[in-house]
Design goal:
Blueprint: E1 9-11, H1 44-50, E2 56-58, H2 61-69, E3 76-78, H3 80-85, E4 92-98, H4 109-122, E5 126-131, H5 135-146, E6 150-156, H6 157-162, H7 164-172, E7 176-180, H8 186-193, H9 202-214, E8 219-221, H10 228-234, H11 236-247, E9 254-258, H12 263-277, E10 283-289, H13 294-297, E11 299-304, E12 313-318, H14 340-347, E13 352-356, H15 358-372, H16 378-396, E14 401-407, H17 415-419
Parallel strand pairs: 4-14, 5-6, 5-8, 6-7, 9-10, 9-14, 10-13
Antiparallel strand pairs: 1-2, 3-4, 11-12
The structure holds pyridoxal-5'-phosphate.
Pyridoxal-5'-phosphate (PLP) is lined by residues 106, 108, 135, 225, 258-265, 332-333, 377, 379-380, 408-409.
Length: 421
């Protein structure tokens, strides 16, 4: 695929949804949140996109140039060796989108870059964010560097101490990384003083990053998943994939992605949902860990987006904002909720959800490593397990199927996980 084939627009699913997406609510008044209320945290362009009714939103030329620099458009591989390993008959084919090829090894820079770009244009000088194991923090650090912003990353202390490599990566990109809870914020200081939550949690790190952005005019808060504009930026994955499949005259019968907050999954599937809504038959599967079964077991309800209950209430499949998941290796999938759009699609039965145990996903990842030779991130391993199941089912039923999945990231910085399984 050539650089000029890279999409000129993001695809906005909002106007195509069969039902109005429930609005985020102010938890005090229970009224719909006004766009202005979000301006202390987010760039104006992102807020506009969050509520936009335009189907296609133009990607500015300078931002496109940044995407080229990250290696977009990205290749779509056929998993020939995996097909062979599974002894699949002719007619069952597996394809995967190589989002692991970004400099930080995941799809996350697709949105980090856009947010940083719009923020810089608006005059922001700094960005604050949180990170668990460091995937999101490294994407933000890279995006900040490209757009000449200072990055401040609040990293859950436990990971800060136990997983040093992504911290080194962030520092190399010029970001400041603080173990959370930290001395930099009121909420962090309070926790340290009360000797509460010393090892930190994602909820606390979010609260610290939000406090920094809310109290400094020149700082914006960068968010890694869940919100509409984040998913919008990720649609470049699906737009590219669609073109790539068309160019080899293939049609996706099954689309699969793993789901934490829902951004890499949405990025792949949204451009295909448009055709499904017009009557085309496509099976779409969201895959999550059994330890965090938001789509398979969570309730579709209004809930807070964070543990600190600082965000607006959003309607989503949720296990409750105080749900603390087991410490599984797929840290990027340990979120108590899901994107409101993905939740609505699930509620309307336009997508299916499956949950697998950690053991099942690592078994699948090992089959992938031993055939394709690429190490999946523990998150991506969830998608792979569903892909293998889906291919074997088609084989058993003697069906022809083209299965396409999002290879959301590599596991080269998660290697210790592979030795513990
Ligand atoms: C963060 C992450 C995920 C999960 O986040 P989504 O917003 O659901 O995409 C999945 N895979 C990888 C490699 C990640 O880094």
């Amino acid at each position: 695929m050539l650089a000029e084939d890279f999409p000129r627009h993001y695809y906005n699913i909002l106007p195509d949804l069969p039902e109005q997406l429930p609005f985020p609510l102010n938890p005090k008044t229970r009224e719909a949140v006004k766009a202005e209320e979000l301006e202390v945290l987010f760039p104006k362009e992102c807020i506009k996109q969050e509520f936009s009714n335009e189907s296609f939103i133009k990607i500015p030329a300078e931002l496109r140039e940044q995407y080229f620099h990250l290696g977009r458009p990205r290749p779509l591989y056929r998993a020939l060796r995996l097909e062979k390993k599974l002894s699949l008959p002719k007619g069952i084919e597996i394809y995967y989108k190589r989002e692991d090829l970004s400099p930080v090894g995941s799809h996350k820079p697709n949105t980090a870059l856009a947010q940083a770009f719009y923020a810089k244009k608006q005059g922001f000088e700094n960005v604050s964010t949180e990170t668990g194991a460091g995937q999101w923090g490294s994407a933000v650090s890279l995006a900040a560097m490209f757009n000449e912003l200072n990055a401040e990353v609040y990293m859950v202390r436990n990971s800060f101490e136990q997983k040093p490599y992504r911290k080194i990566l962030m520092n190399l990109f010029g970001a400041e990384v603080f173990p959370s809870p930290s001395e930099n914020t009121i909420i962090g200081k309070q926790m340290l003083k009360e000797k509460k939550n010393f090892n930190g949690s994602l909820g606390t790190a979010i609260s610290e990053a939000i406090e920094k952005a809310a109290t400094n005019e020149k700082t914006f808060y960068s968010i890694g998943s869940v919100l509409n504009h984040v998913l919008l930026h990720q649609t470049i994955i699906g737009l590219e994939t669609k073109k790539q499949l068309e160019s080899i005259d293939k049609n996706a019968d099954v689309l699969i992605g793993c789901v934490g907050g829902g951004s890499n999954f949405a990025g792949l599937i949204f451009p295909f949902i448009k055709d499904k809504l017009k009557g085309k038959e496509t099976e779409i599967i969201a895959v999550e860990p059994k330890a965090v079964p938001t789509l398979t077991k969570g309730k579709y309800k209004y809930d807070f987006g964070d543990t600190g209950k600082m965000t607006p209430l959003i309607k989503m499949h949720s296990l409750g904002s105080d749900f603390i998941p087991e410490p599984i290796h797929a840290g990027g999938l340990r979120y108590h909720g899901d994107s409101p759009i993905v939740s609505l699609l699930k509620n309307l039965d336009l997508i299916k959800a499956k949950a697998y145990s950690q053991e099942q996903t690592f078994e699948a990842a090992k089959i992938f490593v031993n055939s394709e030779g690429i190490i999946p991130a523990p998150e991506t391993a969830h998608a792979i397990k569903a892909v293998i199941d889906s291919a074997l089912k088609a084989k058993q039923n003697k069906e022809e199927k083209t299965i396409v999945f999002n290879f959301s990231g590599h596991g080269l910085l998660d290697l210790p996980a592979y030795t513990k399984i």
